C-alpha cells in the first residue's frame, strides 16, 4: 500500500463569524447563530468527518466555549481549537484545554495561533513584534505542555514566569492533546520544528506545498523530530467539472471590484503574516487569473483572509488533485465550502466515496437487502423496492 492509499483524515469548519452563499454580498447570508453551528456539527459528525476547525479572532465567537457547547451535541467529532499565547496565561489555557478534553472525552485538538495582525493583538494587550511572538510562544508552550503532561510547571523565562504552577485534573489524551500549527515565516517553521505534532498550510499550489513540507521536515529532523502535515482548503465539488466551475463563478458573482480593493487594502495594512502574504500573491487581487494551479481556484482569497483557495471540479477531478497533495506528505485536510451546511453534505456525498471515506450511516441497514430506488413511488417520493433486481 502506498501512502496515497491511506484515507485522509478529513475535518470540516465551523463558520463562527457567519456564513453565506455569495462572497461580498448580504444576499443569502447567515449571521452568527449557535443553533446553526450545532446543525453543522451534528451533520458532519454523522457524515464521516473526523473533526472541525473552530477559528479564533476578534470577529469569531470564542472557540473554547463554542467547542464545549458543540461537544455536548456530538459523539465522535474532534475539535481543533486555538490557543493564542499572550491572550491568557499558559496555566489558565492548560485548565481550559484539560477540562475541554475531559468534558468531550478526549476529543480536543489544539491549534497554536501566534497571530498575524499587530493591530488585533494590540487589542488583546499583546505588543510583540512578529518573530518575538514565536520566542514568546516557545516559553508559553514549555509551561503549557509541562502542566498538561505532569500537572506541575516552573519557568523563569524572558516572557513567561510561572512559579509552582499546578493543574488539578489531567486531560483524557496522553500525554496531552496533539498540537497543530500553521505559520509560514522562517521563525514559525523553526518554532514548529521543535514542538508541533501537525504542521498546517493554507492551500497553496502543490509545488509550494512540497517546498514547505521539505523545509519543515528538514528543520524538524535537525531537532531529532518528525512532524505530520495538513492542508486547509475550500471545496466546490459538483457532479461535473463544468457545474463546479459555474458555481465557483456564482460564489463571486455579487462581489464588486470596490469590495475586493477594500479587502486587499485591509490585508496589506493590518497583516504582518507571511502565510497571508503568500496567499495574496497567488492572485495579486486580480479576478481574471484565479486558477493558480490545475483546479486550484484563488477566488475566495480576493476577500477572505487566511484560507483563500478552493479545489474545484467533479469528484474524480478533485480526488486526483488531493492525491497529488497526499503524495507530498499531506495526511489531513481541513475543508470548508459556502454555505457550510449544504457543502458539508456535498463533499461527503460526492467526494468521500472517491477518496475511501464513508459516512457511518451506511452501517445502519436501510432495507432487508432488496434493491431500492429513491422517488420510485409511494406517497412521499419514498423508497420503492424493485422486484427481481
Ligand atoms: C490552517 C490554519 C488555521 C489558522 N487559523 C487561524 C485562526 O483561527 N486565527 C488566526 O488569527 N490565525 C490563524 N492562522 C494564522 C496563523 O496561526 C499565524 O498566526 C499567521 O499565519 C502568522 O504566521 P506567519 O507570519 O509565520 O505566517 C491559521 C493558519 C493556518 C495555516
TrEMBL record:
Instruction: Give the transmembrane region(s).
Output: none
Pfam families from the entry? Bac_luciferase
Taxonomic placement: Bacteria, Pseudomonadati, Pseudomonadota, Alphaproteobacteria, Hyphomicrobiales
**Protein's job:** Catalyzes the desulfonation of aliphatic sulfonates.
Name of the protein in its database record: Alkanesulfonate monooxygenase
Q: Which enzyme type, at the first EC level?
A: oxidoreductase
- By its UniProt entry, which NCBIfam families does this protein fall under? alk_sulf_monoox, PRK00719.1
Which family does the record claim for this protein? Belongs to the SsuD family.
Q: Which domain of life is it from?
A: Bacteria
Task: Name the reaction it catalyses.
Answer: an alkanesulfonate + FMNH2 + O2 = an aldehyde + FMN + sulfite + H2O + 2 H(+)
Molecular functions (GO terms): alkanesulfonate monooxygenase activity
Q: Which GO terms describe its biological process?
A: alkanesulfonate catabolic process
What region holds the Luciferase-like domain? Answer: 10-331
Keyword flag Oxidoreductase: yes
Tagged with keyword Oxidoreductase: yes
Q: Give the enzyme's EC designation.
A: 1.14.14.5
The source organism is Sinorhizobium americanum
| Gene3D superfamilies (alphabetical) | Luciferase-like domain
Amino acid at each position: 500500500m502506498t501512502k496515497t492509499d491511506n484515507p485522509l483524515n478529513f475535518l470540516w469548519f465551523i463558520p463562527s463569524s457567519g456564513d453565506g452563499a455569495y462572497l461580498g454580498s448580504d444576499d443569502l447570508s447567515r449571521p452568527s447563530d449557535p443553533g446553526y453551528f450545532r446543525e453543522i456539527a451534528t451533520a458532519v459528525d454523522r457524515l464521516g468527518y473526523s473533526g472541525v476547525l473552530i477559528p479564533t479572532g476578534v470577529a469569531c465567537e470564542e472557540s473554547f466555549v463554542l467547542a464545549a457547547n458543540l461537544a455536548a451535541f456530538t459523539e465522535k467529532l474532534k475539535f481543533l481549537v486555538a490557543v493564542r499565547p499572550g491572550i491568557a496565561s499558559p496555566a489558565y489555557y492548560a485548565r481550559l484545554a484539560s477540562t475541554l478534553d475531559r468534558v468531550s472525552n478526549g476529543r480536543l485538538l489544539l491549534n497554536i495561533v501566534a497571530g498575524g495582525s499587530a493591530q488585533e493583538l494590540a487589542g488583546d494587550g499583546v505588543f510583540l513584534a512578529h518573530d518575538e511572538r514565536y520566542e514568546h510562544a516557545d516559553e508559553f508552550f514549555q509551561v503549557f505542555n509541562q502542566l498538561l503532561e505532569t500537572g506541575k510547571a516552573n519557568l523563569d523565562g524572558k516572557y513567561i514566569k510561572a512559579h509552582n504552577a499546578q493543574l488539578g485534573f489531567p486531560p483524557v489524551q496522553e500525554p496531552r492533546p496533539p498540537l497543530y500549527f500553521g505559520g509560514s515565516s522562517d521563525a514559525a517553521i523553526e518554532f514548529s520544528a521543535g514542538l508541533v505534532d501537525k504542521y498546517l498550510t493554507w492551500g497553496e499550489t502543490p509545488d509550494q506545498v512540497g517546498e514547505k513540507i521539505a523545509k519543515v521536515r528538514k528543520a524538524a529532523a535537525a531537532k531529532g523530530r518528525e512532524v505530520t502535515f495538513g492542508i486547509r482548503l475550500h471545496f466546490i465539488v459538483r457532479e461535473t467539472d463544468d457545474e463546479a466551475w459555474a458555481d465557483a463563478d456564482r460564489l463571486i458573482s455579487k462581489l464588486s471590484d470596490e469590495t475586493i480593493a477594500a479587502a486587499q487594502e485591509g490585508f496589506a495594512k493590518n497583516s504582518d503574516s507571511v502565510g497571508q502574504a503568500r496567499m495574496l500573491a497567488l492572485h495579486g487581487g486580480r479576478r481574471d487569473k484565479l486558477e493558480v494551479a490545475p483546479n486550484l481556484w484563488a477566488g475566495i482569497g480576493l476577500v477572505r483572509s487566511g484560507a483563500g483557495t478552493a479545489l474545484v471540479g467533479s469528484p474524480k477531478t478533485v480526488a486526483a488533485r488531493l492525491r497529488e497533495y497526499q503524495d507530498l506528505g499531506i495526511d489531513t485536510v481541513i475543508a470548508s465550502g459556502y454555505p457550510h451546511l449544504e457543502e458539508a453534505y456535498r463533499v461527503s456525498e460526492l467526494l468521500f466515496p472517491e477518496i475511501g471515506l464513508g459516512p457511518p450511516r451506511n452501517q445502519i441497514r436501510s432495507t432487508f437487502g432488496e434493491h431500492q430506488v429513491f422517488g420510485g413511488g409511494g406517497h412521499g417520493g419514498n423508497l420503492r423496492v424493485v422486484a427481481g433486481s
